[in-house]
Amino acid sequence: VRPWRVANLRKEKRHNKMNLDTMREMLIANEGLSLKVYKCTAGANSIGVGRNLDSRGISEDEAMLMLNNDIEICVAALDKRYPWWNQLSEARQEVMVDLMFNLGESRLAKFVKFLQSMETASSADDYAVAAEHLLDSLYAKQLPGRSERNAEIIRGG
To answer: How far does Cα 135 stand from its chain's mean position?
Structure first.
């Protein structure tokens, strides 16, 4: 796997002698900056500073940068709301991040029995109960493969 990186866009001069900071300022002034998807004047889905998502999309590096940021957001939300999650095994922590990523904080909070079971679990039987609570949900009906994989990890730890 390649290391995920962000292009170095400091005030360096390239072979074309263009100052990238000045160029960015000009493009932001002309295009605007939107942190959410919008329709440009040509009707294309765009984001950022005029990035045409319909024709150009994003690179794999950009997707991995966004994913890393999203994982950090999930971890921070779990740390804030469920401090006990740090005591789980690494595999169970990964399930918690997956659930936070997929469901979001407000929908995950509705999994009251599952979360209570995870917080108080101290044996394989306790984790089996937590897994069953996870599978007793609309989430499990909508995403049977994902939910069963996560339940299996919770059971096995």
So the answer is: 22
Q: What distance lies between CA 50 and its chain's CA centroid? A: 23
Q: How far apart are CA 32 and CA 26, in angstroms?
A: 10
Bridge partners (DSSP) listed for residue 39: 45
The candidate with the shortest Cα–Cα distance to 119, out of 87, 74, 80, 146, is 87
Residue of 91, 138, 87 lying closest to 111 (CA atoms):
138
Round to whole Å and give the CA distance between 97 and 81: 13
Residue pLDDT, tens place only, 58-114: 999 999 999 999 999 999 999 999 999 999 999 999 999 999 999 999 999 999 999
Closest C-alpha to 154, from 70, 90, 83 = 90
Q: pTM score, two decimals?
A: 0.83
The secondary structure element, H or E, covering residue 134 is: helix 124-135
